[in-house]
Amino acid sequence: MTSKQTQNWPQLSFSEIQDTLETVHQWIQIVGKIRLRTMPWQNHSWHVALYVSTKGFTTNPIPYQGRIFQIDFDFKKHKLYVECSNAGKEEMDLYPRTVADFYRELFEKLDVLGIDVKIHGRPNEMEPAIPFSENTTNKAYDKEAAHAIWKSMLKANEVFNKFRSDFVGKVSPVHLFWGAFDLAVTRFSGEDAPLHQGEMPNMPTDVMQEAYSKEVSSAGFWLGSKDFPFPAFYAYAYPSPEAFGKQEVQPAEAFWSDEMGEFFLKYEDVQQASNPDEVLMSFLQSTYEASVKTAQWDRAKLERN
């Protein structure tokens, strides 16, 4: 019998959410870039992230010329709201519309509120990087798919926040990174890391290197892609000791990918469990322990006793 707790974790089929996911991914990139250009810089690019809210995704308050504004996706009413502390509130409907149309209207709304922001007009971490103003390819929006995407992030966000609370060292908030459209939480050893040599499509190398300038153990939730067509939880370490991927982790359904250099746990294995929160927590904790064991972190100084 499916428990009430399990029912609160929505079913996600990549094939069913794919078109909506690809459109919303472009939309949140636009909103994320507005936050990027207006927020003061924070280490590891934390200032660019979005957050899970009670209705969807949010920028949280953004300081701007002596006032604040905030942009919110509402996947209950299927609206986008832009609110400014001294200039009222504007709204947009979320429906099947092109990225170019979304981009145009959003900047019109910002202009009405007296917010003048110039962003890099192409997406990051994806190819092809079609300019937002020219993208008439991505235009799907299914209300049920958008709601399920948000609800799955909401459930993961709760467990991630519980997981991060046991760490007394430096740990990130639970961030929604719009580059890859993933929810992530990262713990730090406090030690410097070797210079990162990896690359991402349409991502400056120095941004990647600063993001991974310290030793980390990171976990997250990703909604999948054409090349990896299933939503999944992931965990990785940087630097990644050779023995990391050989460690035993929980639950039994979790697996290591040599190609990606990460542990994975399919979302469906969590969603279908009798206690999804417990299963996900076991993955987060066991992959973290695999990371710090092989990297020899000083756990006594970093964890709640």
How would you characterize the overall build of this protein?
This is Ava_C0101 and related proteins. It holds the Pfam family DUF5996. By secondary structure, the protein is α+β, with helices and mostly antiparallel strands. The protein has two domains: 11-134; 143-302, no CATH class. The strands form two sheets. Strands 1, 2, 3, 4, 5 and 6 form a six-stranded antiparallel β-sheet that branches. The chain has a six-stranded antiparallel β-sheet with strand order 7-8-9-10-12-11. The two termini are 37 Å apart. It contains eight helices and twelve strands. The radius of gyration is 19 Å and the shape is globular. Mean pLDDT is 95; it is low at 1-5.
Task: Give me the secondary-structure topology.
Blueprint: H1 4-7, H2 14-38, E1 51-52, E2 56-58, E3 62-64, E4 67-74, E5 79-84, E6 88-93, H3 99-112, H4 143-164, E7 175-177, E8 182-192, H5 205-211, E9 214-222, E10 232-238, E11 255-257, E12 262-266, H6 267-271, H7 276-295, H8 299-302
Antiparallel strand pairs: 1-2, 2-4, 3-4, 4-5, 5-6, 7-8, 8-9, 9-10, 10-12, 11-12
